[in-house]
């Protein structure tokens, strides 16, 4: 019947008509038989927009090792405990194929920045980001930088979050810059004595906004036209490009507002010791690992060094239910393990400053 071009519904009806036991089945068994045959001979495809939940669930069912056996509830807890929100500067160590970086970029919604750092000279793979179908605004705010370059900012400049008058972790945009420039022009035209004190604000504000214009230059590209006059779509910016010197300088002075670590194959204690100084003070962090012992060792190290407070290790737990009329119950086969998360808040350590 398939070779003759019969539809899937026709094949299912023919199978039911030729079945000698279909009439003796119960109503539930008949529905089960129909669904089984429709799945084989009349499959249906539903197109949906990709999201963090769907991508994480798909990889967890088919290729769990590629994402470090990270469940969807674990990923949501990572974003929540790291306080990832609009206009945030998020530092991420993503060794799970780019799932964490893509989830952060999706939550930022084209407002903040996410920097994926890596150990060594070769960047880690973030190919899963392509499945998110992010727009140009979101893609242009995803950067990749080696950990050695970020640590050099810490040693060359001041400690992150030590500059007064600027709120750490907030990236000025064009609207923020224009709101600063307008009062300064008014004060200069009035000739008040405060114009000299307001002048440095007008100079310092465009510093982080310089990279804002550079990024927008990659987004708002002019329409190109071919030889026949038809418009050609501009090439989308590549995710994971190197950050500009202005952006690196801003991160070195103000620090990152959040930290997420998902590196199951690396030693957590040494990685976190290098990453925490890059955060601004009172910045939250969340660390994922498949096993408990590496996080317990890292937690003890942070308690001894007094670099963080509010330390806790959380074990996510998820139960999925089947909800049908008169047949609502938990699924018979569930994954009882979702890894562990170490969370805390970075604080200023006076002992380290006195010793230095």
UniProtKB/TrEMBL annotation:
It is found in: Nucleus. Residues 156-243 are annotated as: Disordered. GO terms for biological process: tRNA methylation. GO terms for cellular component: nucleus; tRNA (m1A) methyltransferase complex. Coiled coil: none annotated. It comes from the Eukaryota. Keywords: Nucleus, tRNA processing. Residues 189-199 have a biased composition (Polar residues). PANTHER family: TRANSLATION INITIATION FACTOR EIF3-RELATED (PTHR12945), TRNA (ADENINE(58)-N(1))-METHYLTRANSFERASE NON-CATALYTIC SUBUNIT TRM6 (PTHR12945:SF0). Belongs to the TRM6/GCD10 family. This is tRNA (adenine(58)-N(1))-methyltransferase non-catalytic subunit TRM6. It comes from Aegilops tauschii subsp. strangulata. The lineage of its organism: Eukaryota, Viridiplantae, Streptophyta, Embryophyta, Tracheophyta.
């Amino acid at each position: 019947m398939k070779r003759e071009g019969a539809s899937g519904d026709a094949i299912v009806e023919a199978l039911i008509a030729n079945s000698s036991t279909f009439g003796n089945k119960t109503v539930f068994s008949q529905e089960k038989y129909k669904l089984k045959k429709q799945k084989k001979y009349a499959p249906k495809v539903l197109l949906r927009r990709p999201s963090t939940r769907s991508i994480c669930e798909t990889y967890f069912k088919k290729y769990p090792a590629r994402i470090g056996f990270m469940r969807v509830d674990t990923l949501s807890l990572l974003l929540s405990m790291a306080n990832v929100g609009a206009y945030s500067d998020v530092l991420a160590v993503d060794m799970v194929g780019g799932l964490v970086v893509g989830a952060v970029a999706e939550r930022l919604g084209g407002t903040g920045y996410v920097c994926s750092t890596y150990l060594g000279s070769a960047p880690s793979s973030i190919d899963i980001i392509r499945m998110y179908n992010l727009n140009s605004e979101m893609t242009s705010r995803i950067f990749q930088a080696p950990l050695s370059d970020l640590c050099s900012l810490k040693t060359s400049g001041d400690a992150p979050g030590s500059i007064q008058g600027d709120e750490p972790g907030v990236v000025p945009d064009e609207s923020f810059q224009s709101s600063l420039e307008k009062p300064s022009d008014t004060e200069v035209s009035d000739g008040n004595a405060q114009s000299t004190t307001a002048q440095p604000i007008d100079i310092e504000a465009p510093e982080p906004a310089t990279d804002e214009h550079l990024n927008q230059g990659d987004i708002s590209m002019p329409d190109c036209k071919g030889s026949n006059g038809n418009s050609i779509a501009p090439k989308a910016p590549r995710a994971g490009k190197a950050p500009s010197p202005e952006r690196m300088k801003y991160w070195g002075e103000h620090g990152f507002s959040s930290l997420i670590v998902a590196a199951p194959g690396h030693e957590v204690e040494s990685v976190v010791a290098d990453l925490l100084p890059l955060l601004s003070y009172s910045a939250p962090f969340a660390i994922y690992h498949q096993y408990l012992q590496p996080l317990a060792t890292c937690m003890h190290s942070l308690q001894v060094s007094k670099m963080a407070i509010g330390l806790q290790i959380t074990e996510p737990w998820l139960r999925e239910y089947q909800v049908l009329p008169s047949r609502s119950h938990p699924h018979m086969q569930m994954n009882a393990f979702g890894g562990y998360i170490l969370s805390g808040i970075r604080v200023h350590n006076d002992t380290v400053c006195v010793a230095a």
